[in-house]
Amino acid sequence: MPPNVPRFIAIASGKGGVGKTWLAITLSHALARAGLRILLFDADLGLANVDVQLGLAPRLDLGSVISGRATVAGAVTQFGIAGFDVLAGQSGSGGLSGLSAGSLEALLIRIRDETTKYDAVLVDLSAGIDRTVRRISAWSDVLLVVATEEPTSLTDAYAVLKLQNLDRPDGTPQIVVNQAQSIAAGQQTYSTLRRASVAFLQREPRLAGVIRQDSKVRDAIRHQTSLLLRHPNCIAAQDVEALARNCLED
Fold it and tell me: Terminus of the chain with fewer CB atoms < 10 Å: N or C?
């Protein structure tokens, strides 16, 4: 029987401050609640903070894997209360960005080979569109592009879509609108991106989900825990659960 092949879901934004890491954490939890074996891989180059948002203190991290001091499995930290695992990044190290193209390819192959116990690996990418972010986006099976209604967020999200179109012409990136005033407002934000993509890229990204603004999100982050643990019935939690169901249907 062939080994399990996990599905790699990259989460990108172009612009920082749109809730990308929070979404990666909460979506990981939602998929774990649905019965999937999930690894959350913090690939943020300079501001890795998945472990901080979850109150974890990993002994080993991505830097340990890059240096060869640990296997992927050896560097994983269990977030047992939520039922998923975390491969922490190395904040401020620039570890991934400093890798040569060949070393990055070797690392990605190694990560894919050493994560066969999981059903899905969610990759929290750093904000921006540098070489490493582009390569991991194109390498992943699914690209979720997180945007808000802010004009700068829309511009940067479109830049991610444009580069993905160049790097992986056969890919179909999906849009997640975060911090929306309402479902209708989120759908309007998506329509703006969709129109630009169709007009200039001849591609139509799908709307994966709309996450509404919710004060409970800030409270969960402040308490360094998952929203689905602290406020499982709030509107943002419901919206992420709906996003998870959409991911499962793909």
Answer: N
